[in-house]
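This protein record is not my work; I was only asked to verify it. Take the sequence as given and treat only the tokens as open to question. I have pasted the whole thing underneath without changing anything:
***
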Amino acid sequence: MAQITHKDPPLSSQLSGLFLPDFCEKGNLLIIILVAELLAMVLAIAQPGSFIDRLSYLALVSLFIQWIALSSISIMCSLQKFLRRLNNVQAALISFGLIQTLTILFTLLSYAITLFTGIAASLQKDWLLDSLLSNLLISFIITAIALRYLYIQHQSKLHIEAEARSRIRALQARIRPHFLFNSMNIIASLTRSDPILAEQAVEDLSELFRASLSSSENLNLEDELELARSYLRIESLRLGSRLRVIWDIDEAAYSINLPALSIQPLVENAVYHGIEQLPKGGTIRITAKKRQQYIRIEISNPVPTDGKKARSGNQIAQDNVRQRFALAFANRGKMNVQLKNNHYRVTLEAPLGERVKL
């Protein structure tokens, strides 16, 4: 029987305490450029004069603000390792001071350009001082608002992650008493009649308990499926030929990481709310296929057709897995549920090449 191993989270996930985002990430770069351009447009609209005058001003102020924005991003990206060794207050002060310093430097550079081109002669006497004061005031306000927004967003993310971890703990602690009692009774009955099978059942049960007590927040698909197999082997001892399972797994999908306990609770639902309620039982089909840039996992099972009321609690595990998938893959992980032709199908989609963010 395969031994399930738990790996420590990567260093990048351990450094997530800093509220500043990853300035080397392309998505964040694009957002900062767009926000800088929106600021330039607001300043241009606020200027008096004709539409043509405002367009001219927009071109100049866009160039000035984008200089500051791109320079800030480049420096913050290069200082990222250093900043992550600091606390939030220190990182915020350094970031704030850097942006104000760049604002002063580019204001002086703009003035130097006007001197070089001869434009300075047409400017007011106190133009440099007025520009420094107004640019610093605008930069002060915008930077303070941006840092405050990033801090609040970071705190919200930490709250969501803490809630997701509590959901994992709740799911890990959710071993149905009847399943445990049935498993122990089966093991006791097999001890004399089939010691080898009883030993395997004990090993399978221990794997489930090990997963429920583990602090690991993610597992690769191979380990997740091994947990599901352990559970199904135990249930097959109780349900016998009523429980049939078809596995259709693409080996290329094994290496992908998923939030811990994503598969086994769904398989347990398939048994508890489907197969167990059918007099003749049925077949659970579990598939995992690579589809371009994501892995598609499906768990399907028949359900009663006589209108029998479903057991309560079916949505708890599903909602848990759905929310953790969305969080773990930044909303690129999906879960869909479909009931069609008396078959219940749960589909999970996990993007390839992404680290689980839990």
In short: The radius of gyration is 29 Å. Residues 127-172 form the longest helix (46 residues). Residues 1-15 have pLDDT under 50 and may be disordered.
